[in-house]
Amino acid sequence: MSADVIIPASLLPRDGRFGSGPSKVRQAQVDAVAAGGRSLLGTSHRKPPVKALVGSVREGLAEFFRIPDGYEVILGNGGSTAFWDAATFSLVRERAAHGVFGEFGAKFAASTAGAPFLASSLVTEVPAGQVCLPDVAPTADVFAWPHNETSTGAAAPVRRIGDPGSLVVIDGTSAAGGLDVDISQTDVYYFAPQKNFGADGGLWLAVLSPAAIERIELLAASGRWIPPFLSLKLALDNSRANQTLNTPAVASLILLANQIEWLNAHGGLAWATNRTSQSASHLYGWAQANPAATPFVENPSWRSNVVGTIDIDESIDAVQITKILRSNGVVDIDPYRKLGRNQLRVAMFPSVDPSDVALLTQAIDFVIERVAG
């Protein structure tokens, strides 16, 4: 059937990429990679051209997030998956407390729970589609949860909890750059660049408070064995020299630097969050008005503005919808595989034009009429 349904051009988004990561990359970013190829690609990451590139990323993010005095931006190889293990070694002194409301929060909780040198992790968990913060426990010295759960499209508040000596560690992977955040309410706000920042995976970035830096240095000097690749102390030292411990993907850094420059030129975080809010208004408004669609996240205050999950009536096969859309150039709106729902998942990162989200809903309506009929 997918080969037979042709969606009118007037209903199709101008750009059909709505993937939740890797995400849409703007043409200007691709052009930046081509333009920077001769001076940046194929040269050492410890030489001035690449170090200047890393420096521009760190400075650009500091401006974008309006980081407080004393906070620092650091980066390393391996993506958020690697950062969970790095945080386990370099941020948790004795015990972590986690808020788990989806796949990615659960993965960080599993990292700290499996560490033989830590006390058992404290996990507060709710079903997918809901939101929770960790229970405040005096024995925990790290409180961690995702700002945005990529797997479910639920967004949590970011605010300080726990005793003054504890750290608030926030996974901003799919939130950073598209959801508002007060960095002063965190000690560590970490993310990968393949979502709102339109780059490739394999890199992590983090904004650290003075308290987090002190904890990193304390644990590095404690005698705890920390693999060099997972040492946040080594990442901190190298970042201060505008480099990474290991060779980075320079092309990804170019994509990232260009995206940060674009975001800051348009008004920074305030502009980006207004843009994602417009997209979310289109998507959720359509779902609430459509008898065949329902926002998966029931509580409106928890619905993410950067990743929207929409349940489709069981009488209509969502897989068939995505196949037809893909054959018409609209891609990657499949649900998270482990969630197992008859669902569509739409990324609404700043690179996605809000008008394209509005057109996407029209295209979906066109397909539903044919599938249901």
TrEMBL record:
Alphabetically sorted, this entry's keywords are: Amino-acid biosynthesis, Aminotransferase, Cytoplasm, Pyridoxal phosphate, Pyridoxine biosynthesis, Serine biosynthesis, Transferase
Reaction(s) catalysed (UniProt annotation): 4-(phosphooxy)-L-threonine + 2-oxoglutarate = (R)-3-hydroxy-2-oxo-4-phosphooxybutanoate + L-glutamate; O-phospho-L-serine + 2-oxoglutarate = 3-phosphooxypyruvate + L-glutamate
The cofactors it requires, by name, are: pyridoxal 5'-phosphate
Report which residue ranges the record marks as coiled coil: none
Residue limits of the Aminotransferase class V domain?
136-330
What Enzyme Commission number(s) appear in the record? 2.6.1.52
Tell me a GO biological process for this protein.
pyridoxine biosynthetic process
Entry similarity comment: Belongs to the class-V pyridoxal-phosphate-dependent aminotransferase family. SerC subfamily.
Q: Quick one: which pathway?
A: Amino-acid biosynthesis; L-serine biosynthesis; L-serine from 3-phospho-D-glycerate: step 2/3
Cross-referenced Gene3D superfamilies: Aspartate Aminotransferase, domain 1, Type I PLP-dependent aspartate aminotransferase-like (Major domain)
Instruction: Name it.
Output: phosphoserine transaminase
Q: Which domain of life is it from?
A: Bacteria
Source organism of the structure: Rarobacter faecitabidus
Q: Which PANTHER family match?
A: ALANINE--GLYOXYLATE AMINOTRANSFERASE (PTHR21152:SF40), AMINOTRANSFERASE CLASS V (PTHR21152)
The UniProt GO MF terms for this protein read: alanine-glyoxylate transaminase activity; L-serine-pyruvate transaminase activity; O-phospho-L-serine:2-oxoglutarate aminotransferase activity
